[in-house]
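Suppose you are handed a protein chain with no further information: no name, no annotation, nothing but its sequence. What can you learn? This example shows the usual starting point.
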Amino acid sequence: MTVTGRLFADRRLRTRRAGRTFVGGVPLRIITVSERGKGIVREWLAGAAIGATDSEQRLARKLLEAGLVHPSPQQSLHRQISLTTVIPVKDDHHGLRTTVGRLEGPIIVVDDGSEPAVSRSLLETTHGAPVRVIRNGHTLGPAAARNAGAAACDSEIIAFVDAGLRITQADLRRLTPHFNDEQVVAAAPRVRSTEQAGFLARYERSFSPLDLGSDPGPVGPGRAITYAPSACLLVRVDALRDVGGFDPALRFGEDVDLIWRLAQIGTVRYDPEIVVEHDPRHTLRGWCAQRFNYGTSAAPLAKRHPDSVAPWRVSRWSVVAIALLSTGHPGLALAPAIAPLRGLRSQLANLPDANVEAIRLILEGHSWAGRSFAENAARTWSPIALILALSGFGRAPILRWMVLGWSRRIGRSRSPGQFGLGVLDDLSYGLGVVTGAARGRSIRSLVPRITR
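A reasonable first move is to predict its three-dimensional structure. Written in structure tokens, the prediction is:
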């Protein structure tokens, strides 16, 4: 499986031992190369193309899978890859017209029981592209609609695009070079909310759940980027069929489920260099309902992926340290905080500054654990946390952690109104998670995963 094109370093990549050891990635990876390998990597990061020798291919694959470097596939398109766009739609005729009018085809529109039905006359704004309409007599849901469209495709790649998305054929084509790497089974662009006037629109521009940020990387459980939305997702047809397509039993979270199954058989790439846009929700009620519905997906996802849905993945030492901090014992928290030092030093024994690097990694780990705990207290566990606080159980520390979690958005918005929307965002999502757990009679989606 050949890796082609060029590579660039992850922004968090650190080098040690005069450039021979690379540290970074999520989960953390430490890779040491030979002097020759060091020279090759230096040339790659300076813009040289990846060679075809077995040794270069193995090294490039190792660095890519660790998330230490990322591909620049736009420079490596050596063949035209066949592509079909599948657009599921339910009643959003205006959004469908907006999306289809920017694409060139072939296009398959799956009308999932719209009233009135999608008509051919609605699609006359295309650039003369072939458009096929498949209609479900009644609503089956987005997963089933996408599967119906996929079943009608005979191309190598399917682009699943939601109605209302502002995307061009050129945007889709800029993603297809990722598939020159046969290990890649899916690729997704950055999806942002359009810049508009209005309270909700301004918030969504900064904090849309579809926007995964500006850092590229591999996607999957345990990665820095855990999922990619199906609002715009390119998938290799053979891979989609191998994993059985979208799960029609899932009304929400069906894209997360698919991504996690695809990540088991290949690589899913997130490429924020390609940016597409969607309109935000226009009513507060609809916006809250969206967040609530997203939350309800956690419980069914936990049944399908029990090792991947835990809201807080953390080491036992961080748990003990945070518990002691929360109960007013910061001095005692120091002992478990530094407990991993010896083991980590042994892993870093080849580094000349092993002690310094180990301490830095431990501090980073505990800092991340604290931030993640605060975010979960304010979001995933928020209904439970508020009930406990109102009952008087651990009121002060619980409220402190929740406020800390809510304040994570302050860096991007200093508006009190936007802060209030952030609190409502978290509470709506948390209520959805708790409701989904109650419906499914399982607390698995609420329980942290504690590692050694």
